[in-house]
Amino acid sequence: MDTLRPQFWTLPLTALTRAEWEALCDGCGQCCLHKLEDDDTGEILPTNVACKLLDTGTAQCKDYRNRKAYVPDCLRLTMRNVADQHWLPRTCAYRLRAEGDPLPSWHYLISGSRETVREAGISVIGRVICETEAGPLEHHLVDWPDAGDQQAFGDWEA
Predict the structure, then answer these.
(1) DSSP secondary-structure letter at 149?
(2) CA–CA separation, 135 vs 108, rounded Å?
(3) Beta strands in 2-155 (DSSP E)
(4) 57 Cβ partners below 8 Å, 6+ apart?
(5) What is the per-residue pLDDT across 120-139, written as a single tens digit (0 to 9) for each?
(6) Is residue 36 within 8 Å of 47, Cβ to Cβ?
(7) What is the rounded distance in angstroms from the CA atom of residue 128 to the CA atom of residue 123?
């Protein structure tokens, strides 16, 4: 079993072990939401519609290991492809580290608590609907906040 090195999250992504790479995820669930692309501008438009495998109460994949069998177009983030995934939220730990930025204070590796991602308003828990219940994605466009935008969620819920 891999052990996690102290402050491994400060290392370049290429220096991480597989276990460290997996532990870098803050568990927000935003990467498991459907997105639309504006045909005219190419802009990625986020929705509050979750993949059928995302547990909307925990923001965790219900079958992470076998997800590609159920969702063939599920993208596996790797050290090689993460820098090309511009649709990842600006708060994503993988994106932050790929761009050389530090993790935010609410990330569990910094705060010591898995709850701080939710307290900061970054987690999708309680704010999304499953794709099997949603209907047309166009009816579910949202403006997901970044860490400093905690008030943007306000009273908004799925």
Answers:
(1) G
(2) 34
(3) 33-37, 44-50, 54-55, 60-61, 129-130
(4) 125, 126
(5) 999 999 999 999 999 999 99
(6) yes
(7) 10
